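Hi R.,

Here's the chain you asked about this morning:
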Amino acid sequence: MIDLHEITREGTVVPVSEASFPAPFPSGLEYAAPARGSWNIVHVGMLIPESHQIFVCAEGCLRGVVLTAAEMGAFDRFSTIAVQENNLLDGDMEQLILDGVDEIFSGMEKLPRALLLYTSCIHHFTGCDMDYVFKKLREKYPAVDFTDCYMNPIMRKSKLPPDATMRRQLYSLLKPAPREEKLVAILGNNERLSPEGEMMKLLRAEGYEVLEIAGCKNYEEYQRHAAAALSITTNPAAVPGGEALEKRLSIPHLHLPLSYDFEEIEGNLRALCRRLSLPMPDAAALRKEAEKALAHAARELDGMAVSIDYTATSRPLGLAKLLLEHGFRVVSVYADSFSAAEKPAFGWLREHAPELILRPTVQMKMGLLPRDEAAQAGGLLAIGQKAAFFTGTEYFVNLLEGGGFYGFMGIKQLAGQMEADAKTRKDVPSIIQVKGWGCSC
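And the predicted structure, written out as tokens:
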């Protein structure tokens, strides 16, 4: 039992100098902060235009995804099939799905171009024959492309967690197509990369068309991903999708991760130029622009504390390192674990910023402890919705998964955004309660 009257900060605050890597905090009873801007499997699946989603699970499990569809105003692209107790006892799970899809399709004026069928943990526990289900569906509805998706909580700690699985399945419907040598596909990002980034500018200048699923207006545009001469991933959760397409459709895949390390950013740019035989931009000049923007923002913040969380970027430690190196006062990072790519930044922080505080986001106590970090002298700027919630600040950068800021120019844009947001009070609760922030699928 946990005595809620005697909650202390023990286990919720650790200096980076004393933290373990990659998981600074033990797993246990978890808390979900009401910072709801991160996308879930419903939002991500909606990126496929002209598609429909069907979730097959128990009614209690359907509540969250139904609310997501309602908040998106996307009930016309969303349906459910409820699993009842008798379906388990009678062993008719396969027929339940087939009959459910028939009923849903019969109520449509026009069939969708694609159907994303989400099964749940109960189907795995009962050994439901999904191969049979998909075989029957494809035979009956040849004009619809079907793919398997999952709402399965037992996958959370697996080798391929739900987020990475969903981003992989986004491209499972692509069909072989003739190669377009001047077409590049950027895979697995919920938000398009900024057109001001040096990679995007370089590709456009060299006559390449860049395709991103977040910008596809119809199913034909989505299918053009299969014609790409090269696929690029910048989000580590998207890598399985790139690898799957390389294996299935022979589309070369290049992972150029979002980074805040200037040498790695330049290395990414060189790797792209080598792969496509492009002229290398002036990296030194680009770096100078980014450093100038960082210096200006640091002066404008004038010692204002900064806190970062993992929903803002896949590299929160890397971002903390960059900002500390350029005169910002980063005081805390909110994250429950870190990717292997963060290890160099973790080592640098232990040596050069040992007092930097790491704090969890799902530890049970986090829902009960005071949110008073913003009471620091000079105020606090949060980067990310969870950092904004936990610190209690009114100043924050509403950044999710990097926000499309990529490369040297992405750092310049982020510095400018920090500068602007450090001067603007925000109604944090009204912003962070929006589920799937920025989702307009």
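The mean pLDDT is 94.

Let me know if you need anything else.
M.
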